[in-house]
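Hi support team,

I submitted a single chain yesterday and got back a structure, but I'm not sure I'm reading the token output correctly. Could someone confirm the output below corresponds to the sequence I sent? I've pasted both exactly as they appear in my results page.

Thanks,
R.
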Amino acid sequence: MEQREEELIRQHADHDQELKALYEEHQQYKRMLETFREKPYLTTEEEMEKKRIQKLKLAQKDRMMMILARYRQQS
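Hi R., thanks for writing in. Yes, this is the structure output for that exact sequence:
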């Protein structure tokens, strides 16, 4: 995620609870993926879980980008 997008999220998160929740979940998924990246080897189950988390993280980002697009249009 780009810095300007994160700034927009921080700017609107105080009054947009959906955006705030999506951003927090997105950050949580990011931390979870970091733990997988730190491992030299992943089991089959871990690889499947990693892919599942990546999909969830991407879905969160897509939803956040839709919300941010609305804010950009309002400006």
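A quick pointer for reading it: Residues 3-74 form one domain. Let us know if anything else looks off.

Best,
Support desk
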